[in-house]
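README: folding subset

This subset contains proteins for which both the sequence and a predicted structure token string are available. Records are stored as plain text. Below is the entry for CoA transferase (388 residues), shown exactly as it appears on disk.
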Amino acid sequence: MTDDAAIGPLAGVRVVELAGIGPGPFTAMMLADLGADVVRVDRVGDVDPAAFGTPHPDLLNRGRRSIGVDLKSPGGREVVLALVAGADALVEGFRPGVTERLGLGPAECHAVNPRLVYGRMTGWGQDGPAAPYAGHDIDYLALTGALHGIGRAGERPVPPLNLLGDFGGGGMMLALGLVSALYAVRGGAPGQVVDAAIVDGVAVLSTQIHALRRLGMWQDPRGVNLLDGGAPFYDTYECADGRHLAVGALEPRFYDELVRRTGFPPHPGEDLDRTDPANWPALREAWARLFRTRTRDEWTALLSASDACVAPVLDWTEAPEHPHLAARGTFTERDGVTQPAPAPRFSGTPTALRRPPPQPGEHTDELLAEAGFDPARTAELRAAGAVA
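--- output ---
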């Protein structure tokens, strides 16, 4: 198989990505992982021909080809619109109104390609009082209520990396939106704009918590509920070697398995009713004492091949080496770099990492030729600084 082999469920789909950071590139990575031909439009100032042929270290940019373009120049605008004319979708993550000022907004792009799906990735959305302002993952989580629910009881909220907002509520939602709109276009619908706002996506991800609140099964204070570390049977524990276990024995039969295998309780009188939250502090302390009697790996050997719902808390280096993840190929290696493999899996249209992350502008001439620019026009664009 060559780098150019079109495989995966999105084989044959062409996507233009206006370079950005975080959730936009993650969306483009997901589409490329699923087989789409993604063209990343990088800034001319980022182009370094001496680096061509060496994979860029940013894994979010994998699977693409790159063209260096000055979006503020007339020639750069001409190039992007030529790419758009032959594309199925576009991804951009600028603040609202920026692509319109560049002459590359939905109206201009749909004028050259009425079937285009125009994907927009922002934190606050394209409209609303906060839309013009900057923000980051932690801000979007704060506004939706999600951040309020993450942290220990009586302590301040804890940012959950930027996985929940940027990538779960942002990039993944835009990828779903783009694929859905592409499906509609192939069914005869016109091209359209997908407005993916992280605040909207995080709110959707929290639907279950809103449902539990309505059912009277969730309290607003953090760290006192079943799934937020409040329950002693759904928490992490330190072991004798300072490493940790994750315990997720929610259902009674799984908890019973955990009790049977560990010999809990370690002391008489500590076998309290786990269904009564009033007993949770005492149960947590009893479990904590027990787990501190062995190392993480000793507990893992005892509990992993069972329904006790216990797993070792692995670090970034350990995770790819875990036997289960290794057996599934959850991580893969490309050009000497270990990284997460494309997901999910498809039985009839398998995916693969076709290309390493490109250096900015590495495929400029190739992509200009595909877009219909002859060598003379390409030379003119390069001389004018419109491409690099």
